Amino acid sequence: MEERLSWKITREELRKIYRTFDKLTGTVEPSYRVLHFFYRDGLTLFATDGVAKLEFLASEMPSFDGIYSIPLNDLKVVLQGQRNEQITFEFSGKNVNIFTESEFLQVRNAQRSDFPFHVSNGFEDICRVFLTSFQESLDFASVVLEEPENAGFVIFDNAMYVVGISHNVGCVAKVGNTELDRLFLGEVPYVTARHLVKSLSEIQEQNRLTIGFNGDEISLTCGRFAYHVMLEPSLPRSTTRLLKLISSVNGEEMDLRELLATLKKAYTFHPRGVVRIMRARGSPDRWQVSMQIATGLYVSKIRSLGELDGVLITEVHRLRSAMMRLGNSARISHVGGSMVLSAGDKHLFLAIR
Question: pTM of the entire structure?
Answer without folding.
Answer: 0.94
